[in-house]
Amino acid sequence: MVKTPEELALMRVSGRLLASVFEMLDTRQLAGMSTLDVNDLVDAFITVDLGARPASKGQYGFQYALNCSLNHVVCHGIPDPDVIIRDGDIINFDITLETNGFIADSSKTYIVGNASPAARRLVRIAQETMWRGIRQVRPGAHVGDIGHAIEKHAKSNGCSVVRDYCGHGIGREMHEEPQVLNYGRPGTGPLLQEGMVFTVEPMVNQGTRRVETEDDGWTVVTQDGKLSAQFEHTVAVTADGVEVLTLRQDELRLR
Fold first, then answer.
1. What is residue 41's predicted lDDT score, i.e. its pLDDT?
2. Fewer C-beta within 10 Å: the chain N or C terminus?
3. Quick one: how far is CA 67 from the chain centroid?
């Protein structure tokens, strides 16, 4: 769905506010916190400090402000008072925010303390794959160009890309068209047009790309128990390329 300039201006506001949520988390000592502690911190920051709404709360029956995916959890991890973040973990926080009727969506995988070199490498590769995909975004390109760039980089580094979940259009609704697969062939899939807004969100695994859902119906884990990492941004197609609406200050050099 193509956004008008006025709609895109409102989405920039949502994106900037969401970026500030992660910048707040960047200042926190995560080790020793429960995942529910982080959820409550984010919920209060969005609602009280920013005057916005956690868009995932109440969506599809989900009752929390974020997904928290620890180590081998791929996505949709549920905040839990009994799950404590520990030194050496990696953990992804996937957060959505709505203000002025428009939603932004972003995620970041945090390295907690003295994580292993292998874990650090996976997180780096996951972030690189996202940027490889984002750099394909321009008018006249195709969704398949994004997915091809993502999977090629992951595979070239001995990692796999989860195929069960993908990026998506976003705006007044959290999930709109098009679907943005994390694999594909160049020149295939929907044509990108100026004004389109969608997420790019590869989930990169150390081992197999295959996943399974736990009995709670939400938590998705790697089938082989190896680590998974994810990064995500909401992006807009501009006249001459791409604008990252959820860009954080620490990422300015990465664009």
1. 98
2. C
3. 10
Backbone phi and psi for residue 95, each to the nearest 5 degrees, phi listed first: -130, 140
Q: Which residues of 72-92 are buried (b: 16+ CB within 10 A; e: fewer)?
A: bbbbbbbbbeebebeeebbbb
Quick one: pLDDT at residue 248?
Answer: 93
For 62-111, write each residue's pLDDT tens digit.
999 999 999 999 999 999 999 999 999 999 999 999 999 999 999 999 99
Query: Tokens 């984002």 sit at which residue?
Result: 134
pLDDT of amino acid 255: 56
Is the separation of the CB atoms in 173 and 158 below 8 Å?
Answer: no
Tell me the pTM.
0.96
Report the pLDDT value the prediction gives residue 1, as an integer from 0 to 100.
Answer: 80
Could you tell me how far CA 144 lies from the centroid of its own chain?
19
- Of 65, 64, 68, 61, the C-alpha closest to 217 is 61
Angle at 247 between CA 252 and CA 86, to 5 degrees: 95
State the Cα–Cα distance between residues 168 and 194, nearest whole angstrom: 16
Give the separation between CA 144 and CA 53, rounded to whole angstroms.
33
Ranges in the chain, pLDDT < 70: 253-255
d(CA 95, CA 65): 7
Residue 183 per-residue DSSP state: S
φ/ψ of 3, rounded to 5, equals: -95, 145
